Amino acid sequence: MSAEEQVKLKDFGNIFSLEGKVAVVTGGSRGLGLHAASGLLQAGCSKVYITSRKAQACDEAVAALNALPNKRPGAEAISVPADSAKMEELDRLAAEISKTTDHVDILFANAGATWGEKFDTHPESAFSKVMDLNVKSVFYTIQKLAPLLTAKATAEDPSRVIITASVAGIGIGTIGQNATPSYSVSKAAAIHLAKNLAVELGPRHILTNAIAPGFYPSKMASGLIELKGGFKELEQYSPNLRLGRPEDVAGLVVFLSSRASGHINGAVITTDGGAVHKGRL
What DSSP state is assigned to residue 258? Predict the structure, then answer.
């Protein structure tokens, strides 16, 4: 192949485009899920299904997303409330999505929970709840939506599964009075789940990757941020001297959903400004 042929990359101008793609975002009514959904719509997706446990939150998120001025003509966000922790609800979720699409190109498995309490009194019920939602429900969400993910996937145009893990699953998370052992362990498991599914689902033309966010201002993280000294303190701890912003996670999810990531499978990408490399989070 000549140098001239090598530099003519196939349609490079649209390498990040998601034109016409169909996406599902669990935990999509707020925080990282909502930021990602906004990015997916603005990158060209024709449908983005928003699901979380509370119907009102889903409806409010969809209203905001559908008001975006720069999405493609006819593109829409669709509310499908469901409790990801319940198997029957996951069956219903897949059935509801199937009523308005015959395939799914992108699944952002983002629903999750945390619990903070010291080691000596950490309740079994909380540990089980966090593990169930952050690990088991992620696996079964992917399983239930696998038929839709494989429906139009090919080796040249694979579907994508993106799992939200955390830097707490890589380094050591919060210990002491507000210890989060179940959260940290669940996110380590989510990372390993992504690696296993990359091998399992790769031959079915589904690429599976995980993202590992650090601190992003959100409802779930705000309490822990305050306990660790507040925004300014954590910004100083981060090597790039700031916390995560909406476009940081949206850009990463769009990248992992696009043709630009077509040969990335089983990867874990941190988005924390480098803080995980400084030791305990």
Answer: S
Res 164 pLDDT > 80: yes
DSSP single-letter state for residue 239 = T
First to last CA, the chain: 48
Whether residue 67 lies inside any domain: the answer is: yes
45 close to 23: Cβ distance less than 8 angstroms: yes
Q: Interior CA angle at 254 toward 89 and 264, to 5°?
A: 95
Task: Taking residues 185-208, report their average pLDDT.
Answer: 98
Span 113-123, average pLDDT: 93
| Number of domains present in the structure of the chain | 1
Residue 11: what pLDDT?
82
**Alpha-carbon span 263 to 252, nearest angstrom:** 15
Residue 8 lies in a domain: no
**101 burial class (0-12, 13-18, 19+ CB within 10 angstroms)?**
middle
Please list the active-site residues: 183
Instruction: Judge whether 10 lies within some domain.
Output: no
Instruction: Give the angle subtended at the CA of 135 by the CAs of 168 and 29, to the nearest 5°.
Output: 85
CA distance 263 to 156: 10
Identify the CATH number of the domain in which residue 257 sits: 3.40.50.720
Q: Which domain covers residue 222, as residue numbers? A: 16-278
What rounded mean pLDDT belongs to the chain?
A: 92
- Identify the sign of the CA torsion 120, 113, 35, 279: positive
Residue 110 contacts residue 84 (beta carbons within 8 Å): no
DSSP result, 7-72: H--TTGGGTT--TT-EEEEETTTSHHHHHHHHHHHHTT-SEEEEE-S-HHHHHHHHHHHHT-TTSP
- Whole-angstrom distance, CA of residue 269 vs CA of residue 33: 16
Q: Is residue 5 part of a domain?
A: no
Residues 29-66: tens digit of each pLDDT:
999 999 999 999 999 999 999 999 999 999 999 999 99
